[in-house]
Every structure is written in C-alpha cells, then in structure tokens.
Design a protein that fits this description.
Blueprint: E1 3-8, H1 13-24, E2 31-37, E3 43-49, H2 52-58, E4 69-75, E5 90-91, E6 101-103, E7 107-115, H3 118-127, H4 137-151, H5 156-166, E8 169-177, E9 184-189, E10 194-197, E11 202-205, E12 217-220, E13 225-230, E14 233-237, E15 243-244, E16 249-250, H6 266-272, H7 274-285, E17 286-287, E18 290-291, H8 300-304, E19 308-313, H9 315-332, E20 336-340, H10 341-344, E21 355-361, H11 367-378, E22 382-387, H12 393-397, E23 400-403, H13 416-435, H14 441-463, H15 465-475, E24 480-485, H16 488-504, E25 507-512, E26 529-534, H17 540-551, E27 556-562, E28 574-578, H18 587-604
Parallel strand pairs: 19-20, 19-21, 21-22, 22-23, 24-25, 24-26, 26-27, 27-28
Antiparallel strand pairs: 1-4, 1-11, 2-3, 2-4, 3-6, 5-7, 7-8, 8-9, 9-13, 10-11, 10-12, 12-16, 13-14, 14-15, 17-18
The protein binds 6-O-phosphono-alpha-D-glucopyranose.
6-O-phosphono-alpha-D-glucopyranose binds near residues 414 and 619.
C-alpha cells in the first residue's frame, strides 16, 4: 500500500530514490513520483503514471534531476484514481496543474496510509484560503502542516506534531520544507517506516530492503513520533516535541535475499526458497530435538492454561490459520476459531485471559490484523504474533512474538512466508499437545522428525515441476476453476485457489467439497476444471465422490494426493502426487504443486507474476 523513500547526503539523490522505489514497487505500482532539492533552490517534482520504469525513463534514470536531498513515492491508489494529479509527491502551494515541475511550495510531501478525517480538514483549509488540485488525503495533510507552520510561525517538528493531533488514520509521512534545504522530516502512525544512517548520508523507507544497499544501521521509529533527518544523523521527537532516543538496529541479513538470483521471477525464486525458510524457522524453534519457545516468552505453564485459541489474519495468513485449526484441535484438543481480521476487529467477541489470540502476518503491518491485535489486547486476551518482518508493528505490540525466518519476500503472492508460518504453527500445535500431556515424548519426537523431513520432501516436489508447467499450458485459457477438499484439504484448497486467481486472473473458488452441491455445482459445465485435494485418508473417498459428481456434469478433473494412492488415476484426468508424511503436516507439501500451477499459468498467460494488477503486498489500509 504505497511505498515511500527519502535520501539526504552529498551525492545525487534521484538515482538512489529510484533504486529504493524499485525495491518497494511491490507495495503499489499505479504511479510514482520524486521531489528533489538542489541546495536552497525550490523542489523539482516529477511524476509518472504506471510502473516505475516510466518515472525512470522520464528522469533519465534519475540523472536528469540534480540535487542531494529528496523524497519518492510509489502509489497504490486509495483516494482518487491513478492519475498525474493524484500521484505523489504533493505540495502545499496553491498551484494549478498536477503540482509537478519546479514548485515554490513551502512544504512538499509523500505519504503512505489513509487520513480518515481528510474531508473535514479540507473544509477547514478551504475556509483559510487553500485550494486543492487533487482528490488525495495526502494533499490535505501537506497543506495542514503548511497551515500550522505559517500560522504559528513554528519549526517543522512543531508544525508536524500539531498536525498529528488533528488527523485521524494512519501515516508514514516524509516532508521537505523550503526553509530547511538539506533536511527531511518524517512522522509515523500505524504505517511502516525505517530510517537509516551512514557516515554522511541518511535514508528513509517503508521497508528495509529499499535502503539496505546503502546502510545496515536502521532506526524503527515508533508510532506518534517525528524524525528530523539530516545527512548522517537523525533526531527523534515525541508528540510534545521533546527529543527521544531510539536504539539503532544492525540488519544482519543480506541484500542478496532481495535479488532475483537468476530466477525469472521473485515468485519462482521464493517457491524454491521454501525448504530453506522452513529449515531456518524450525531451527529457531527446535533445538537438540526439543521444542523451545523461549524467545517468544511463552512458558509451558502459559500453554497449559489456554482454554481457547482465536487465530486472526488476512489473506494467505488466514489460510495458514485455517490449516492450523485442524492441526491444533486434533493434536492439542483445544477449541480453535479462525477469523478474518477485518471482521474480527468490529465484532464484540468476548475474550478472557485464558484465550490466546494468535495474529499471523508476514509483514507485521497489515492494518486489519494490527487493529484486531489491539482489540484482543484491550479485551484482556493473551496475544501471540507470528510475524516474518522483524521489528514490525504487530511484532512489537503483541505480548509474545514468534518470528518466522523466511527472509524478505518480494513477490506479491506469498509462498515461502506462508510455508514458514505453517511450520511455525505446526510446532506450536505439537508443543501445546506435549505440554498438556496429550501426546507422549515418543510421539512428540515422531512429529518433529516428520516436520524436519519436509524441506527435503519439498525439494523432491520441485524436481518435478515440469509436469505442472506442462499442465498449466493446457489450462491457461480456462475460465473457471474450483478447488475442493475437506478438513485440512479444504484449507489447502483455499490457498491453492488464491494463488491461482491472484496472479493468473482466472476466476477460481475454493469450496469445502461437501458444500459444493448446495448451489455452486450449478456453475460446473463442460470442461470446467475441478481440482480435488485428497491428502487426508479418512476423507479421500468422500472428496473423490464429490469430484465425480462434478465429472458427471462435464468437469475436467485434477487430483492432488499422496504417493501410493494410484487408484485415483481411474477417476481423474490428471494426477499430481506429493510424498507421504504425517497427515497433519500435508499442507506444507500439497501447497507446492498448487503454487507452481498458479505461477506457470500466470507465466503462460503473459502476466506480471510478481506484481499482479490491483494488489499490494503489504496492506496498510483497512
Ligand atoms: C496481502 C498479500 C497476501 C497476504 C495478506 C496478509 O493481500 O498479498 O500475500 O497474505 O496481504 O498480509 P500479511 O503481511 O499480514 O501476512
């Protein structure tokens, strides 16, 4: 949901800003813009519609824009359509046109987030003689800062804090003031923002990979704090304008993790990184054959005291919750409910201290998941975040945090983060069962051995990816696909269907197999593709019957099952096998062919696999 960057130092800013934006493009790609200042001359603003390369072409890869201090933005439209006029940066001046070119404005800014009361603030500013050229909430906030800056004749930090108490919503804001040539001012509430410093330059970005090439020393600015950034140094302030000290964090992972590494797309690279993501996540949770949740702060006593679990998440993370529900209930005998964060946050779900609310999130910044976490804390539940991005807001606010170690994930369609989350939740399920005395030590060891074998088993599935590549070329022109399964197979179907539709744009739905005949089967016609997931022994025949009901109505069938179930070939048109493992953990294996199927179908249709239309990886608006 929009990415922002900034640089102030002694070399040309624009190429650095474009480089940073390229690494943030997964956050939005309907338009992009830069504002750069050359000493005390006014800011030069350049914007372009569409993907970032248009902006790069327009500025000769940044070389045509002189100046050593600047900000940049890549947009995922919220207020106003993707147009030049709505693209960021936005300026405080009462200009005509789109606010681009050399602008004499006092304040120029970029923003990630949503200002909820922008209409009311806009009316106030209109009464004070401001006019507006765009439909964005960002133009309003930039002008509000300008208004306080001039009205009270105060410095940028005070003008920003006054603005912060007036606006409702979320923001990571980066602002340049005409009177402060080499400085950038930032403010944050509920949208991600990191600041980095090197010897003689400073950087800001929505996410670490955007600045990692230049520095490893970063500050995670807190909610409702302001930063004043100058070359090589940064100061932070609270809402009262008092200076606060923030710790510097050294990033230990490598930029290579955010490069394509010879793969055609990030998604394919990340599919192949799943064994590593799982091994590393397991390695942090299981040491010398024993599960250790020490780093999360969850003690065995706490785990014994839980009487209900609510898993709350969005998108694929919600699908992880759906899969974990079956595993936890079956292994640990604790009732689990799985909720969409966007719904949960607005429901009056009664919670007690013996309820554990688990928020699963790759980014740790998803607005609805964050809001659900806060609701759960307010209502007195214990909270655990299962998060991939270190230092993210959800990770910091939860009572307990379990980090998945998938590394940075760039493709919008998640793969390795999903797999790392699944494994982390499986380990948690086993530990819950063990500490509550439901499984023996021997059984625990057996489950852990099964989990430890999964990375190699995924490796074997990946060796046979050409079969899926071939099958995807056959289905590339299909209009509708139904993924069906029961129990854990239903959870796998949900994720398989999402992978397919989000990157191939083929309409696809996942159904609990038994539910299909309550309406949806009327959509099945000649050659409709029905993919049945058949990994659970006790449900195999039931789901297969549901598939055959579809076949009788013309459907073309694909079956996804475990090695050895060869009889399925008598009934379906195409079969995919995955290795056998303990049935609780089959989601980790069965999802891989479905990821590959979505991936190759998107490639066959000539689509932008890593940046599908209308989507963003980190959804920081509700
Ligand atoms: C977006 C992403 C999904 C992700 C979901 C939740 O829709 O495209 O891949 O599952 O957000 O994101 P989170 O960062 O909270 O896991």
């Amino acid at each position: 949901m929009c990415g922002i960057v900034g640089y102030t130092g002694h070399v040309q800013a624009a190429p650095i800003l474009l480089d940073g934006l390229a690494r943030l493009e997964y956050r939005g790609y309907d338009s992009a813009g830069l504002a750069v200042r050359n000493g005390s001359s006014p800011a030069e603003v350049v914007k372009a519609i569409g993907k970032l390369y248009h902006l790069a072409d327009k500025t000769d890869q940044g070389r045509a824009l002189p100046g050593t201090c600047g900000i940049g933005h890549t947009r995922w439209a919220t207020h106003g359509d993707p147009s030049m006029v709505n693209a960021h940066p936005h300026v405080s001046g009462n200009c005509s046109g789109s606010g681009s070119g050399t602008v004499e404005s006092d304040v120029v800014g970029v923003h990630n987030g949503i200002i909820e009361n922008f209409t009311e603030l806009k009316e106030k500013l209109l009464r004070h003689g401001y006019s507006f050229y765009s439909e964005t909430d960002t133009e309003v906030v930039v002008k509000l800062v300008d208004y306080y800056y001039k009205k009270y004749k105060i410095g940028p930090v005070d003008a920003i804090t006054r603005t912060m108490v007036r606006v409702r919503g979320s923001y990571a804001l980066a602002l340049m003031f005409k009177d402060y040539p080499e400085e950038i001012f930032v403010a944050r509430k509920d949208s991600p923002l990191v600041i980095g410093t090197s010897e003689d330059a400073s950087f800001l970005a929505s996410d670490v990979p955007a600045i990692l090439k230049f520095t490893r020393s970063v500050y995670y600015i807190d909610n409702l704090q302001v930063g004043r950034i100058s070359p090589g140094s940064v100061k932070f302030y609270d809402l009262n304008g008092d200076e606060v000290q923030l710790p510097v964090t050294e990033i230990t992972w490598d930029t290579a993790a955010a490069e394509k590494d010879g793969y055609e797309h990030f998604m394919l690279k990340e599919i192949h990184e799943q064994p590593k993501a799982i091994r590393e996540t397991l390695g942090s949770l299981v040491r010398e054959g024993k599960i250790t949740l020490e780093e999360t702060g969850l003690t065995e006593e706490m785990l014994r005291g839980i009487s209900r679990i609510d898993i709350v998440a969005c998108g694929s993370a919600w699908h992880v919750g759906m899969a974990s529900q079956y595993v936890i209930e079956d292994l640990a005998r604790i009732p689990v409910r799985v909720e969409l964060a966007s719904e949960y946050r607005y429901r009056s779900v009664p919670l007690a201290p013996d309820t554990l609310v688990i928020v699963i999130s790759q980014s740790g910044e998803t607005a609805d998941s964050l809001a659900a976490l806060r609701v759960a804390k307010e209502r007195g539940a214990k909270t655990l975040a299962v998060v991939n991005v270190i230092g993210s807001t959800i990770a910091r606010e939860a009572d307990h945090t379990l980090y998945t170690l998938a590394g940075p994930e760039i493709a919008v369609a998640t793969t390795k983060a999903y797999s790392a989350q699944l494994i982390a939740m499986d380990v948690l399920a086993v530990q819950l069962a063990a500490v509550r005395g439901i499984i023996t030590e021997e059984q625990t060891a057996g489950y852990l051995a099964a989990l430890e074998a999964i990375p190699d088993q995924i490796g074997r599935i990946l060796e046979e990816k050409e079969r899926l590549q071939w099958f995807s070329s056959k289905i590339a022109n299909t209009h509708d696909i139904f993924f069906i399964g029961r129990g854990l197979d239903y959870a796998i179907s949900l994720e398989g269907s999402l992978k397919m539709k989000e990157i191939s744009y083929i309409h696809s739905e996942a159904y609990a197999a038994g539910e299909l005949k309550h309406g949806t089967i009327s959509l099945v016609e000649q050659n409709t593709l029905v993919i049945g997931v058949l990994t659970q022994g006790n449900l195999f025949e039931k789901t297969l019957s549901n598939m055959l009901e579809c076949k009788s109505r013309g459907a073309y069938l694909m079956g996804l099952t475990t090695n050895g179930n060869f009889s399925v070939e008598d009934s379906v048109n195409f079969t995919v096998y995955v290795p056998k493992t303990d049935e609780h953990f089959l989601a980790s294996l069965a999802i891989v062919p479905l990821q590959l199927l979505g991936y190759y179908t998107s490639v066959n249709r000539g689509l932008d696999v890593d940046k599908p239309r209308n989507l963003a990886k980190s959804v920081t608006v509700e």
